[in-house]
């Protein structure tokens, strides 16, 4: 597949304007399907990060004072340009991340919808008046842009993880320094290029690029610099906690979207076909590399055997290959290490009594490709039931009662997404209320929309992306008490 608009394949970062690292050093971006380099980018560090923050701070003074119409019009034009260039953007994403081209197009279009939504949402009321507690007073509560933010994003959804942060941030009047994953920086750079083409003033968004070694240096500046008012981070719980500790030293606002360990429960009374379709999608989409991907599957005993037979048939039909090939269902994992993790999880599960039903090893296509795998007889002691699998491995357990499965499902430090299938409306209410998760998929796994808040309970994070909640994350609340009015 060919990229028609070659300008979208960037070779520089953006700090105010397009630029190289101060010392001109670069690093390679690799294609996980072929293990070949697809480009080089500036390998930046502390000094470039400080410069980006200073430029973002200057730009903030200008950006926050624009009318909401001015900002919203730019967001709308940006969304249009993204849609016009969706095929090229998708090729770039598949080349650096590995997911299928169909999934990449879906992610690009979905990312643009955050701009549409926040271009509108920014026009809603930004305050309220309350009855005063003295006769000579008035009370006003207003929302203001919170300033310069930094967003640190992962590789699994290179466009979405950036856009769901910068859309509300820009709409609110904030400026943002973006630190994309060192593995997938080309997609965010291409998106920001289109933002500038759409009229976004230089400096409002910067993108700092740096390799794995330089990333902590960039992170140290972002989390400690006094002109950064907020850090938004999406990634592992361990890295999130480490960054949060640093950011707390200067009491920055934080939003964290961390790991998940989503349960997927199918009750005896469920629509089995709908549950099977949902499970295939929520488990094997993006090769299982999603924080909301199903991590543990619980099937009630009355339908267990029938469900397993049908599920294995579907899994064995999944076609693995280079995401650029049109008829592929599942691309490679992000790296060879990710395949090694899968091997360790499978080994541990089989040692502890798991039963391998299909798959179980690397795919013949190459070291970062893995066979869609299913293990039955899973239990909480097995490694992949305790942590985020981030790979195409399904862990299945049989259960007897609703009470038992709720306990099992909630037995995790995480609480991001949870799915269940049931056609009993009384049960559905009970289960929805009992599951400790920020997102509940009830007879569905397709919950994604910019209109609803996305985020987790427990160690899955702090704050929400999307919905009106996502805008408030980029605002400060000011209480004005106005006296002497009689
Ligand atoms: P993964 O290793 O699966 O990418 P991480 O949570 O370690 O998960 O990383 C998520 C994102 O956080 C990545 O973009 C990575 O570059 C970034 N990151 C990791 N460590 C740091 C750090 N010390 N400072 C800033 N960013 C970091």
Short description:
By secondary structure, the protein is an alpha/beta fold.
Description:
This protein has 486 residues and is α/β, with parallel strands linked by helices. Helix content is 38%, strand content 21%. The chain has helices at 46-63, 68-84, 86-97, 101-121, 160-172, 186-197, 215-224, 237-248, 272-284, 304-316, 336-351, 383-386, 402-410, 425-434, 467-472; strands at residues 13-15, 17-19, 26-31, 36-42, 127-130, 138-145, 148-152, 175-179, 205-207, 230-234, 253-257, 262-266, 294-300, 355-358, 373-376, 393-399, 414-415, 417-421, 439-442, 457-458, 461-462, 475-482. The strands form 6 sheets. A 7-stranded mixed sheet has the order 14-15-16-13-12-18-19, with helices on both faces. A 6-stranded mixed sheet has the order 9-8-7-10-11-21, sandwiched between helices. A 3-stranded antiparallel sheet has the order 5-6-22, with no helix packed on it. A hairpin with a 1-residue loop joins strand 1 (13-15) and strand 2 (17-19). Helix 7 crosses helix 8 (237-248). 52% of the residues are buried. The mean pLDDT is 97. The chain binds adenosine-5'-diphosphate.
Write the topology of this structure.
Layout: E1 13-15, E2 17-19, E3 26-31, E4 36-42, H1 46-63, H2 68-84, H3 86-97, H4 101-121, E5 127-130, E6 138-145, E7 148-152, H5 160-172, E8 175-179, H6 186-197, E9 205-207, H7 215-224, E10 230-234, H8 237-248, E11 253-257, E12 262-266, H9 272-284, E13 294-300, H10 304-316, H11 336-351, E14 355-358, E15 373-376, H12 383-386, E16 393-399, H13 402-410, E17 414-415, E18 417-421, H14 425-434, E19 439-442, E20 457-458, E21 461-462, H15 467-472, E22 475-482
Parallel strand pairs: 7-8, 7-10, 8-9, 10-11, 12-13, 12-18, 13-16, 15-16, 18-19
Antiparallel strand pairs: 1-2, 3-4, 5-6, 6-22, 11-21, 14-15, 17-20
Helix pairs in contact: 1-7, 2-4, 2-5, 2-6, 3-4, 3-6, 4-5, 7-8
Bound molecules: adenosine-5'-diphosphate.
